[in-house]
Specification:
alpha+beta
Length: 136
Amino acid sequence: MKNYFLLLIFAILTFTMCSNNTEPKYSIDSDKLTNAFINYDVETVKTELDNLIFDLKPKVTKEDSFGHKKNLDVLIKRINSNCSNITASLSCYACIKTNPPQSEIEFSLDSLGTKIKRILDIITSSDKILILKDVH
């Protein structure tokens, strides 16, 4: 009986340790990010959001010559699911005609009852991960 109990515990531990959840954990301090957006603190915004984009490499396709449209959608989803006080949405993709082009994500947040909107400019180069450039 004792052996069955030990075998059961071993099986449970093995099962929980071998979970199929391969999604990496993303760490973001939403209060810090909110304050950074409010104060136009670009460096802190970059530091926080870099935790969400490190694995988003470009995937160039016929429909997406820069390879970051899906990455921006993933980033927005990660922000919205990890920061209840911030709402992110895509303003435009590769719409700023620089070399490489830039995209914009709009952020809506609340500062003591006042609605705040900020725009994040993101470099969307086909040969690099997303690069966070500026907040305005």
